[in-house]
Amino acid sequence: MNEKNNIAKTYDPSQVEERLYNEWVEKGYFHAEVNPDRKPFTIVIPPPNVTGQLHMGHALDETLQDILIRYKRMQGYEALWVPGTDHAGIATQIKVEEVLRKEEGKTRYDLGRERFLERVWEWKNMYGDRIINQLKKIGCSCDWDRERFTMDDGCSKAVREVFYNLYEKGIIYQGSRIINWCPKCTTALSDAEVEYEEQAGHFWHIKYPVKDSDEFVIIATTRPETLFGDTAVAVNPDDERYRHLIGKTLILPLTDREIPVIADEYVDKDFGTGCVKITPAHDPNDFEVGKRHDLEQIKVMNDDATINRYGGKYEGMDRYAARKAMTEELDELGLLVKVEPHSHNVGCCYRCSTTVEPIVSKQWFVKMQPLKGPAVDAVKNGNSKFVPERFSKIYMNWMENVYDWCISRQLWWGHRIPAFYCDECGETTVSKTDIEKCPKCGGHVHQDDDVLDTWFSSALWPFSTLGWPENTKELEYFYPTSVLVTGYDIIFFWVARMIFSAMEHTGKAPFEHIFIHGLVRDSQGRKMSKSLGNGIDPLEIIGKYGADALRFTLATGNSPGNDMRFYTERVEASRNFANKIWNASRFTLMNLDINENKLPEKSELLREDKWIISKFNTLVKEVTDNLDKFELGIAVSKLYDFIWDSFCDWYIELVKPRLFDKENPTGKTAQYVLTYVLSNSMKLLHPFMPFITEEIWRHLPHTGESIMISEWPVFEEKLNFETEEKATEIIMGAITAIRNRRAEMNVPPSKKAKVIIVTDNKAIFENSGAYFERLASADGVEVLSDKRGVSDNCVNIVVDGAEIFLPLDALVDKEKELERLLKEKSELLDEIKRAEGKLNNKGFVEKAPEKVVNEERAKAEKYKAMLDKVLAAIESIEKR
């Protein structure tokens, strides 16, 4: 069946995309079920933040996933794409707190935990569907019946199961350690949530007097505000300069405290002064030194990075204000020796970019040592393969150097830590379900106030979304998943954590392939950001050009693992491609009077038919191979070239005479071939441009309800016509060469000229006159075995398999052409004179960069070669 009679004159995405998408959803084409008769293919979406809005990174990520899932669905796999959103602890809580502050002048503490969480759920219910609806605009064929949320009942149950199991094994523990603290978000951060940037700072050199002595030591620090937390100064035990001071006492400046001089090999005696202030509560290295020497841990800052009571008169001041005031006082006291500029890497919060403060804090941690081994083996043994493979090295390096993971966050929105403390006996109980009484003494308990790192629940996403910890039929069938598609920027945040979590809890790697893509940058190569104001809204692009044009642009620019630049001009080119396909389809439909889609018998096919069928057959093989290798950009480039050049610009033009001549018995064959190649090309293009391909396919003769559940084309050896393909391409090469030469000579297409072909392959060119007459402005074609009888007064063109001659008199006006050539000769002589003048100038040759001199030489040679051609042409005309 087909709907050819009512195809619109122009393609308008706004009239097509929403209608088709709703139909696909209503008919359940996106839904997957456990099906023993089919192989499963599974993707879990990297869940976007529930409060988020679609940006170009999402558009790329989701387009690539949709291409793969549509491709596999058409190949006959039971293709499941699990959608969902992430509760995004810090981001969501900050967003709701901001609304409270602006609209009601309140903080979360004014509401209390329970009422605040009600507000967050209200916010989630109001805005949570926004990004899901935006994903639908791109054409994402997710199984919306299986949509998940990281805080839904099933995912929450999985989180508690994992926490309980790891706690029972001693892998989750509570302890005081140096952690990364964001003073603005007022929460701990894991190492992966800290981004480092080069910042200009200073080294303050400060004197610490030795007690009961005129001596002093000098320390250098980038953070003088932590001085109040110093509990020792360390020197290297082998440093002769300070050996006599080991064990002695120093007076801590600006305080009435005394601190010891200790010996520790951690100190590099050749760096700085060789003396290091030890602040165990505010530096990870100092923390370890402090543990070795049993030093006190003095935390000198509040959660908002103001100085606490240990800072004396500086209490309540912001850390940087205190730094300024303290160094001024040290200078007044004669204890500030000097200040040196110092550029260093500073850790910043990934969410708000505030400088992170390393502080000692009691937090919950995951021991990484027992988990990292199986996760390393999963990639090393090829159970999970990175595409491109180079990213496996980044993963391995991170895994082998990973620290214990701080998983507690001082927030209210998120999975609350399932640890309960007895108010009477102090017992800590971790439970899969909430408890009210202490299992040890029966006393009242209260739950830990902190929540888990957002990435803790995200790490379980590939299996929690399929029903784990229950052994569901979906988990058994669809897990492990087939491929994870994600950006290289979250390999540490998410990919690594999913792998070690899956290995620990399911014993299997969570996905077979990890397809890494780069970032979408602006046209200047800059990262898109609010601060630069260079973000491009995908929905605006879709509104103007259509989803297919955006998807095609993102796929065309994709090379695994590499960033891509986004140009609006490229979207326009993609839109033009859609229009080209539409117009070719309209032309085809207007010339069809057949009602079935089949290939004619081989004996009925003409040479150009076999050529396009053979080209398409090769395309099927190559595109399928490219998609299997995740070479989506290469696949779509081949599709573009085939549809635009081979099909639209050549095959349609080659068969027009057969279509227009209703008496021609080969006309029907051309119709069948056009239909077959066009409809199957739409199948290959469908994963990339789902809407326009569906609309065209439905108008063409077809069987089945939708292109998206039709069969993916397969390579067939019997459709390889190598001889005919080569012969046709020789003819096409000849036609192209004639067109190019005529264009060089400024001969309009309307001016006809005889074409003489001298060739050893007469069989190829005989019976091809119609092609040359229609496509090369030929006024008759003569095919010869040799040049005898060919006039000297001809333009000759050498092509593959032949030499072509065009009578010059038929092409150009002798006087006008001579006038043009003489003018060109004069211009070239001027250019040669200018270039040689430069090259003969000793000063230019010696002083100009070598590259510039070489470019000038190349220009001179080029002009001379062009002049030789012009002189030969002038001589040829003058001989006539």
Provide key terms for this protein.
880 residues; alpha/beta; 29 strands
Question: What is the compact description of this entry?
Answer:
44% of the residues lie in helices and 17% in strands.
Task: Give structural notes.
This protein has 28 helices and 29 strands. The chain is globular. α18 (607-628) runs antiparallel to α19. With 880 residues, it is of the alpha/beta class. The two termini are 63 Å apart. 41% of the residues are buried.
SSE layout and pairing:
Elements: H1 17-26, E1 40-44, H2 56-74, E2 78-82, E3 84-85, H3 89-104, H4 108-111, H5 113-138, E4 148-149, H6 153-168, E5 172-182, E6 187-189, E7 194-209, E8 216-221, E9 232-235, E10 249-251, E11 258-263, E12 275-278, H7 284-293, H8 319-332, E13 336-349, E14 357-366, H9 369-380, E15 385-387, H10 391-400, E16 405-406, E17 408-409, E18 419-422, E19 428-430, E20 445-447, E21 451-452, H11 454-458, H12 461-464, H13 473-478, E22 481-487, H14 491-505, E23 511-517, E24 520-521, H15 538-545, H16 547-556, E25 564-565, H17 568-590, H18 607-628, H19 632-660, H20 667-685, H21 690-699, H22 722-744, E26 753-758, H23 762-765, H24 769-775, E27 778-784, E28 794-799, E29 802-807, H25 808-811, H26 814-839, H27 842-847, H28 850-879
Parallel strand pairs: 1-2, 3-4, 9-11, 15-23, 22-23, 24-25, 26-27
Antiparallel strand pairs: 5-6, 5-14, 7-8, 7-13, 9-12, 10-11, 14-16, 17-21, 18-19, 18-20, 26-29, 28-29
Helix pairs in contact: 9-10, 9-14, 15-16, 16-17, 17-19, 18-19, 18-20, 18-22, 19-20, 20-21, 26-28
